[in-house]
Amino acid sequence: xxxxxxxxxxxxxxxxxxxxxxxxxxxxxxxxxxxxxxxxxxxxxxxxxxxxxxxxxxxxxxxxxxxxxxxxxxxxxxxxxxxxxxxxxxxxxxxxxxxxxxxxxxxxxxxxxxxxxxxxxxxxxxxxxxxxxxxxxxxxxxxxxxxxxxxxxxxxxxxxxxxxxxxxxxxxxxxxxxxxxxxxxxxxxxxxxxxxxxxxxxxxxxxxxxxxxxxxxxxxxxxxxxxxxxxxxxxxxxxxxxxxxxxxxxxxxxxxxxxxxxxxxxxxxxxxxxxxxxxxxxxxxxxxxxxxxxxxxxxxxxxxxxxxxxxxxxxxxxxxxxxxxxxxxxxxxxxxxxxxxx
Length: 342
Fold this sequence. Notes:
Number of domains: 1
CATH topology: TIM Barrel
CATH superfamily: Phosphatidylinositol (PI) phosphodiesterase
Number of strands: 14
């Protein structure tokens, strides 16, 4: 699990700036979140992630016609299901504005839970082909919770769930508010506590603020390297992470979920250096979760692992990553390195 010479050289800058976190102490190590991004989470992929060491399952959630919370990466369905090839749903195609952008297709709120679960789901094939007939259907959030609990029993350790609110303002405008429905599910499953194995994520501060009034669950404000949440009245992401902005975010969330490039950057001679964001976030009394970037095309061998190690060394309180196995190994390598320096 140790670092290669190339990784050791690359991580020198990150190690120099690394706060002494739970990695080197007796506290539980930073969790690994199984986060498949715009991919479609299935029972099989979640089970595999648990068996490889995932501590949390990230479940992006949208609403069905009756308000059931469904694990799906986007409100428009055609990019990740076979809905466009289902003649019985042809008349439901329409134009819509989602988060300020024009969209054309099929939208989750026009379908019942049974209809959504009947759709073959998976990565959209190249050339617009149809997903394979055996592709799994979409999961309800309750099913994801059940998978995490079954995995906890199977692995004899706690596996949590991290719902990610997808376009909550869009659903609120259609009287399908995600927040009260999620709060009800949180209470029903006994997660209504900051100590519970659930952490809710969202880009939109208004959604997290609304949830804060309904539940004691932990909340994460997602931030990107540029831009702002869909709500035009919301702060820009850059403003959220300056000293005053972090104090403001502390009013509705207990953590920042930042993209990888905000925590680490390429340095001279192939080194990876920490940006200092972790220290600023911690000084504001918040946690910082890193959202790892997927491997880049033609990236050198070992580079994705080196970047993951650097995120842990930079003091991330957890890492969200599609490759759970690699993230768990990177966490172990970072722990070994910090213990060796201690």
